[in-house]
Amino acid sequence: MARVLGVDIPDNKRGEIALTYIYGIGRSSANKILEAVQMDKDRRVSTWTDDELKAIRTAIRGVYKIEGDLKSEIRLNIKRLVEIRCYRGHRHQMGLPVRGQRTKTNARTRKGKPKTIANKKKATK
Fold first, then answer.
1. pLDDT for 55-114, tens place per residue?
2. Domain count within the chain
3. Distance between CA atoms of residues 110 and 92, nearest Å
4. In terms of domains, do 59 and 74 share one?
5. Cβ atoms of residues 28 and 19 within 8 Å
6. Distance (Å, rounded) from C-alpha 30 to C-alpha 15?
7. What is the model's pLDDT at position 74?
8. DSSP output for the chain
9. DSSP code of 7?
10. Domain that holds residue 81
11. Is 2 helix (H, G, I), strand (E, B) or coil?
12. Cα 113 from Cα 52, distance rounded (Å)
Protein backbone atom coordinates (compact mmCIF):
# COMPACT_ATOMS: atom_id res chain seq x y z
CA MET A 1 0.00 0.00 0.00
CA ALA A 2 1.15 3.48 -0.84
CA ARG A 3 1.17 6.04 1.96
CA VAL A 4 0.19 9.63 1.23
CA LEU A 5 0.23 12.15 4.10
CA GLY A 6 -0.44 9.57 6.80
CA VAL A 7 -3.13 7.63 4.91
CA ASP A 8 -2.73 4.23 3.29
CA ILE A 9 -4.23 4.24 -0.18
CA PRO A 10 -4.98 0.90 -1.89
CA ASP A 11 -2.61 -0.31 -4.62
CA ASN A 12 -5.20 -2.06 -6.77
CA LYS A 13 -7.35 1.05 -7.40
CA ARG A 14 -7.12 3.71 -10.10
CA GLY A 15 -5.39 6.90 -9.02
CA GLU A 16 -8.58 8.98 -9.21
CA ILE A 17 -10.40 6.62 -6.82
CA ALA A 18 -7.44 5.87 -4.54
CA LEU A 19 -6.93 9.54 -3.63
CA THR A 20 -10.53 9.76 -2.39
CA TYR A 21 -9.52 7.52 0.54
CA ILE A 22 -7.95 10.67 2.02
CA TYR A 23 -10.50 12.58 4.13
CA GLY A 24 -11.19 15.90 2.45
CA ILE A 25 -10.41 14.82 -1.12
CA GLY A 26 -13.25 13.85 -3.44
CA ARG A 27 -13.35 12.85 -7.10
CA SER A 28 -13.02 16.36 -8.54
CA SER A 29 -10.17 17.25 -6.17
CA ALA A 30 -8.40 13.99 -7.02
CA ASN A 31 -8.68 14.78 -10.73
CA LYS A 32 -7.28 18.29 -10.20
CA ILE A 33 -4.34 16.90 -8.19
CA LEU A 34 -3.51 14.32 -10.86
CA GLU A 35 -3.77 16.99 -13.59
CA ALA A 36 -1.43 19.28 -11.65
CA VAL A 37 1.12 16.46 -11.41
CA GLN A 38 0.46 15.49 -15.06
CA MET A 39 -0.44 11.88 -14.33
CA ASP A 40 -3.06 9.70 -15.97
CA LYS A 41 -6.05 9.24 -13.66
CA ASP A 42 -6.60 5.67 -14.92
CA ARG A 43 -3.16 4.38 -13.83
CA ARG A 44 -3.17 2.01 -10.88
CA VAL A 45 -1.44 3.12 -7.69
CA SER A 46 0.83 0.07 -7.83
CA THR A 47 2.47 1.51 -10.97
CA TRP A 48 3.27 4.89 -9.38
CA THR A 49 6.95 5.64 -8.75
CA ASP A 50 8.38 7.24 -5.62
CA ASP A 51 8.92 10.51 -7.47
CA GLU A 52 5.27 10.59 -8.54
CA LEU A 53 4.13 9.90 -4.98
CA LYS A 54 6.34 12.73 -3.76
CA ALA A 55 4.86 15.09 -6.37
CA ILE A 56 1.32 14.13 -5.30
CA ARG A 57 2.18 14.74 -1.63
CA THR A 58 3.50 18.23 -2.38
CA ALA A 59 0.50 19.04 -4.60
CA ILE A 60 -1.91 18.09 -1.81
CA ARG A 61 0.04 19.70 1.02
CA GLY A 62 0.19 23.08 -0.68
CA VAL A 63 -3.48 23.45 -1.57
CA TYR A 64 -5.83 21.20 0.41
CA LYS A 65 -6.76 20.95 4.06
CA ILE A 66 -7.11 17.24 4.84
CA GLU A 67 -7.57 14.68 7.62
CA GLY A 68 -6.98 16.06 11.15
CA ASP A 69 -6.74 19.74 10.20
CA LEU A 70 -10.02 19.61 8.29
CA LYS A 71 -11.81 17.62 11.01
CA SER A 72 -10.69 20.06 13.72
CA GLU A 73 -11.80 23.04 11.60
CA ILE A 74 -15.25 21.49 11.10
CA ARG A 75 -15.49 20.73 14.83
CA LEU A 76 -14.58 24.34 15.69
CA ASN A 77 -17.14 25.70 13.23
CA ILE A 78 -19.88 23.60 14.83
CA LYS A 79 -18.73 24.64 18.31
CA ARG A 80 -18.91 28.31 17.26
CA LEU A 81 -22.47 27.85 15.98
CA VAL A 82 -23.51 26.25 19.27
CA GLU A 83 -21.83 28.98 21.34
CA ILE A 84 -23.52 31.87 19.51
CA ARG A 85 -26.83 30.06 19.99
CA CYS A 86 -27.95 30.27 16.38
CA TYR A 87 -30.59 28.02 14.84
CA ARG A 88 -28.04 25.74 13.14
CA GLY A 89 -26.07 25.40 16.37
CA HIS A 90 -29.22 24.43 18.23
CA ARG A 91 -30.02 21.76 15.62
CA HIS A 92 -26.49 20.36 15.96
CA GLN A 93 -26.87 20.30 19.74
CA MET A 94 -30.18 18.44 19.57
CA GLY A 95 -28.92 15.96 16.96
CA LEU A 96 -31.51 16.95 14.36
CA PRO A 97 -31.05 17.71 10.65
CA VAL A 98 -29.39 21.09 10.20
CA ARG A 99 -30.18 22.01 6.61
CA GLY A 100 -33.97 22.21 6.56
CA GLN A 101 -34.84 18.57 5.94
CA ARG A 102 -38.16 17.24 7.20
CA THR A 103 -38.24 15.39 10.51
CA LYS A 104 -41.80 14.03 10.76
CA THR A 105 -40.71 11.10 8.61
CA ASN A 106 -37.17 10.18 7.58
CA ALA A 107 -34.21 11.88 9.34
CA ARG A 108 -33.37 8.55 11.00
CA THR A 109 -29.64 9.00 10.39
CA ARG A 110 -29.56 12.09 12.62
CA LYS A 111 -32.28 11.13 15.11
CA GLY A 112 -31.16 7.55 15.73
CA LYS A 113 -33.36 4.49 16.26
CA PRO A 114 -37.08 5.20 16.63
CA LYS A 115 -38.28 5.57 20.18
CA THR A 116 -41.76 4.11 20.60
CA ILE A 117 -44.10 6.09 22.79
CA ALA A 118 -46.80 4.01 24.53
CA ASN A 119 -50.49 4.87 24.22
CA LYS A 120 -52.45 6.22 27.15
CA LYS A 121 -53.72 3.37 29.33
CA LYS A 122 -57.50 2.96 29.60
CA ALA A 123 -59.03 3.15 33.05
CA THR A 124 -60.39 -0.18 34.30
CA LYS A 125 -63.73 -0.41 36.11
1. 988 888 878 888 888 999 999 999 999 999 999 999 999 989 989 888 888 888 888 888
2. 2
3. 9
4. no
5. no
6. 8
7. 93
8. -EEETTEEE-TTSBHHHHGGGSTT--HHHHHHHHHHTT--TTSBGGG--HHHHHHHHHHHHHH---HHHHHHHHHHHHHHHHHTT-HHHHHHHHT--SSS---SS--HHHH-S----PPPPPPP-
9. E
10. 69-111
11. strand
12. 46
pTM for this predicted structure: 0.73
In a domain, 125, yes or no: no
4 backbone dihedrals φ, ψ, rounded to 5°: -125, 115
- Residues 73, 106, single domain; the answer is yes
Closest CA to 4 of 58, 72, 41: 58
- Let me know if residue 117 belongs to a domain: no
User: What is the CATH classification number for the domain harbouring 47?
Assistant: 1.10.8.50
* Residues 34 and 49 sit within 8 Å (Cβ to Cβ): no
Looking at the structure, tell me whether residues 94 and 46 fall in a common domain: no
123 lies in a domain?
Answer: no
Residue 10 domain-assigned? yes
| Dihedral sign computed on CA atoms, order 62, 68, 74, 76 | negative
